[in-house]
């Protein structure tokens, strides 16, 4: 039997930690409304206007007014336009959002250094130990809300509990500008009453499947035995069995967000022909792209580093309006930068870096089976 090794004894809860989940309210749209107060009260949709893009594009965020028309994140901009033709479409300004996000993180760091960002506008904070020696995570959450409000003129919602799963459910419970605390003795009841759609990590298809199994809320889920859930949902079934009992031991992981991803190669024999350079740039572009995909990042700025045989080193950068899509595009960009150099000296080092990275949020990138093909390494080259 495939699942015979699972334990079926009642699992235990660890309620010793204090976790806060902070989630900005309609983040991009709120930032735009703050920048341009004449937008207040109007439906604001963060996306390029579908008329400018020929119907392409996806809604990044919609403010609460726009949501009353049924518009939501990840909806096509065209659909949003059909639902609300008078809506104000604003292209995303990630430079600005990133600045605001960095300020948020400076606020978080006054309280703890155990911070796990989920995106520009969301993060988990473990405040079990904290810099202000405050025992109440609720007081800390409130202070963070006040700091954000005062310093950034924006609102956020906060969830407080003893694990990440519950903290996230809690922050979602009262939006906007809400704070929800789920203490250990209230967790089970809270989970029982939660509609299954609200369980973080349960996708649309699973929700449908659950409805087919007569699971509509936490209580229905709780009453299923572990084997049934594992048979229906695999690994997620096991995790849901735990979560609906208020168990989630995953840690708040300090995630060092990479600002750039790059790869460089030093050649034991200097490159002297175009063909060698082309080959090398291709291989670098491929490796950088694999790394970006693995980290679920993309960027619009490409930096080429060239060190000549006399050790003179140049870095040249090019910015693009759109994210670099694939290794071919990255290669072409790097090649064009190199061609502009027009220098005949031998090359001892080449490097390609993609910088100004953003999380890939609205595309699902299938993780390639790169491990097999990636292990090969050219022995004559030194890589760092
Ligand atoms: Mg948010």
Question: What's this model, at a glance?
Answer:
The chain has helices at 27-35, 50-53, 64-67, 77-83, 94-108, 137-152, 164-171, 184-193, 204-212, 218-223, 226-233, 235-243, 274-295, 327-341, 370-374; strands at residues 19-24, 44-46, 61-62, 88-90, 115-119, 122-126, 156-161, 179-181, 260-271, 297-298, 301-308, 313-319, 347-355, 358-359, 381-383.
Account of the 3D structure:
There is one protein chain. With 384 residues, the chain is an alpha+beta fold. The protein is globular and about 70 Å long. The protein has helices at 27-35, 50-53, 64-67, 77-83, 94-108, 137-152, 164-171, 184-193, 204-212, 218-223, 226-233, 235-243, 274-295, 327-341, 370-374, and strands at residues 19-24, 44-46, 61-62, 88-90, 115-119, 122-126, 156-161, 179-181, 260-271, 297-298, 301-308, 313-319, 347-355, 358-359, 381-383. The protein is built from 15 helices and 15 strands. It has a five-stranded mixed β-sheet with strand order 5-6-1-7-8. Bound molecules: magnesium ion. Magnesium ion binds at residues 23-24, 27, 121-122.
Annotate the secondary structure layout.
Blueprint: E1 19-24, H1 27-35, E2 44-46, H2 50-53, E3 61-62, H3 64-67, H4 77-83, E4 88-90, H5 94-108, E5 115-119, E6 122-126, H6 137-152, E7 156-161, H7 164-171, E8 179-181, H8 184-193, H9 204-212, H10 218-223, H11 226-233, H12 235-243, E9 260-271, H13 274-295, E10 297-298, E11 301-308, E12 313-319, H14 327-341, E13 347-355, E14 358-359, H15 370-374, E15 381-383
Parallel strand pairs: 2-4, 7-8
Antiparallel strand pairs: 1-6, 1-7, 2-3, 5-6, 9-13, 9-15, 10-14, 11-12, 11-13
Helix pairs in contact: 5-6, 11-12, 13-14
């Amino acid at each position: 039997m495939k699942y015979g090794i699972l334990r079926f004894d009642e699992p235990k809860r660890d309620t010793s930690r204090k976790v806060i989940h902070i989630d900005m309210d309609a983040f991009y749209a709120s930032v735009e409304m703050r920048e341009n107060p004449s937008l207040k009260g109007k439906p604001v949709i963060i996306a390029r206007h579908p008329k400018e893009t020929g119907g392409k594009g996806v809604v990044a965020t919609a403010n609460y007014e726009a949501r009353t028309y049924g518009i939501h994140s990840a909806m096509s901009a065209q659909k949003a336009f059909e639902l609300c033709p008078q809506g104000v479409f604003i292209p995303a300004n990630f430079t600005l959002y990133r600045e605001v996000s960095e300020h948020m993180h400076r606020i978080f760091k006054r309280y703890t250094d155990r911070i796990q960002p989920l995106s520009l506008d969301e993060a988990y904070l473990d405040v079990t130990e904290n810099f202000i020696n405050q025992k109440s995570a609720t007081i800390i959450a409130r202070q963070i809300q006040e700091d954000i409000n005062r310093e950034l003129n924006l609102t956020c919602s906060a969830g407080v509990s003893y694990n990440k799963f519950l903290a996230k459910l809690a922050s979602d419970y009262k939006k906007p500008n809400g704070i929800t605390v789920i203490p250990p003795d209230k967790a089970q009841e809270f989970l029982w009453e939660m509609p299954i759609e609200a369980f973080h990590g349960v996708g649309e298809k699973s929700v449908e499947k659950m409805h087919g199994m007569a699971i509509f809320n936490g209580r229905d889920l709780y009453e299923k035995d572990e084997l049934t859930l594992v048979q229906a949902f695999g690994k997620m079934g096991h995790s849901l069995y735990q979560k609906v009992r208020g168990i989630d031991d995953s840690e708040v992981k300090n995630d060092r967000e990479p600002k750039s991803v790059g790869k460089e190669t030093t050649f034991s024999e200097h490159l002297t022909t175009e063909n060698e350079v082309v080959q090398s740039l291709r291989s670098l572009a491929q490796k950088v792209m694999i790394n970006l995909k693995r980290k679920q990042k993309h960027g619009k700025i490409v930096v080429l580093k060239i060190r000549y045989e006399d050790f003179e080193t140049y870095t040249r950068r090019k910015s693009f309006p759109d994210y670099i899509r694939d290794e071919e595009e990255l290669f072409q960009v790097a090649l064009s930068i190199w061609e502009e150099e027009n220098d005949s000296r031998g090359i001892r080092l080449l490097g390609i870096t993609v910088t100004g990275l953003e999380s890939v949020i609205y595309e699902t990138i299938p993780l390639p089976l790169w491990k097999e093909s990636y292990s090969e390494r050219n022995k004559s080259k030194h890589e760092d």
